[in-house]
Amino acid sequence: MRAYGVAYWALEAPRDWVVEWVLNYRGGAFIVYNTDEIKRKCILEGVTVEPLSQQGRDSILKQIESSNMELVTLEKAPKVAIYAPPNHEPWDDAVTLALEYSKIPYDKIWDPEVLSDEIQKYDWVHLHHEDFTGQYGKFYRSFRNAPWYRERVRLYQQSAKEAGFDTVAEHKRAVTVHIANYVSQGGFLFAMCSACDTIDIALSAEGIDIIEPEIDGTPMTAGAQDKLRYDNCLMFEDFTLYPDPMR
Hints:
By secondary structure, the chain is of the alpha/beta class. Helix content is 40%, strand content 11%.
């Protein structure tokens, strides 16, 4: 995995080298300029490096044509951000762990940075295990009295209030609108866990309350299922809500 960090380093200024990413070749490899600097970097990071002649490169290209491989040319070191709450632990997110281990630089952002459109300065944004519906991951049934759950509720309610919203759901939905706008303008988004579907659920719930009062203290909109706006979604449509907090 450290090879990814070396490839990123090669793309960074002042080097700005072109890197070729050979997908599925020997488990994944990179072709970069043969310099003493890159050799030293690989040795320091414990990455295997081998000289490659033009003939050797041509041979790899032939293998790519006849196998489940692909050559991707990388020209820019992307500016990366991890969207996560301020109290999240790095060990709780595989992408954060991968970036840390490979030594690829990244910034941490959360709702204030998204709502202020600071998100737009990033090329690639990864969404942590976020529940954008305002239901706190639907852990109410099992963990509603757990200290970590109560702290999450407190933090999210405080953040919503500071941002000028009456509920966490309204706050999170506003965040998803800005994220969707980021994507529509060419931003790359990688989501995992509950972030994959809850972003679309939140986007579809425009102007309606889809949360039972046990969680947010306000009544759920009557007929909420039929009022969802799937045209707001990034990926999914025709999904069914399961608002019961005990399910």
